[in-house]
Design goal:
Elements (H helix, E strand, L loop, with lengths): L8 E3 L1 H5 L4 E7 L2 H6 L4 E14 L2 E12 L1 E2 L6 E2 L3 E10 L12 E2 L4 E3 H12 L39
Parallel strand pairs: 7-8
Antiparallel strand pairs: 1-9, 2-3, 3-4, 4-7, 5-6
């Protein structure tokens, strides 16, 4: 995967040095960047939140809103699934061990890539199976028709696969 350009990197150095310091986060991720993370969107991802130093601990809390451009895993129809999720992370510049890496957002150069954080959170919050409806019938393996829209008359039980 090509690494997306990042005009979304912000410095958190001043926040790390000043307890009780706060900085609001309000940005929209462009379609090219969202697509580079493998998740094109009908409505662009928008972050609205707060970076704050709470007694020496840097926290990022935000709400992410967007409408990803999804397809049903069974019939390939477009799926409208608006997302509005809240996320929060503890940001550190180093960790004591690799075991701690999963618990924190690592910003070793005191720079935080907000697009990377948001798009990763978005991907991890998505369901593993995207369906247009719970009882989706999928595509006919014989003729390729969407079985939710029409009864094609094919008998897929008669299919024999010839592997040589």
């Amino acid at each position: 995967m090509q690494e997306p350009q990042s005009g979304y990197r912000i410095s958190v150095r001043s926040l790390l040095l000043r307890p009780n310091e706060k900085k609001t986060v309000d940005l929209t991720i462009d379609s090219e960047t969202a697509g580079a993370y493998g998740l094109p969107c009908r409505e662009l991802p928008h972050l609205d939140g707060l970076l704050e130093n709470r007694a020496g601990v840097l926290m990022l809390s935000y709400t992410l809103r967007c409408v990803p451009a999804l397809e049903c895993d069974r019939c390939l129809s477009p799926v409208e699934m608006p997302v509005e999720e809240q996320f929060s992370h503890v940001i550190v510049t180093e960790t004591a061990s690799e075991q701690n890496d999963a618990e924190y957002l690592l910003a070793p150069d005191a720079m935080l890539d907000l697009a990377e954080v948001a798009m990763t959170d978005l991907r991890l919050s998505m369901p593993t199976k995207i369906l247009c409806r719970p009882d989706c019938k999928g595509l006919c393996p014989v003729c390729g028709q969407n079985r939710n829209l029409t009864d094609c008359g094919c008998n897929s039980a008669d299919i024999t696969l010839d592997y040589q």
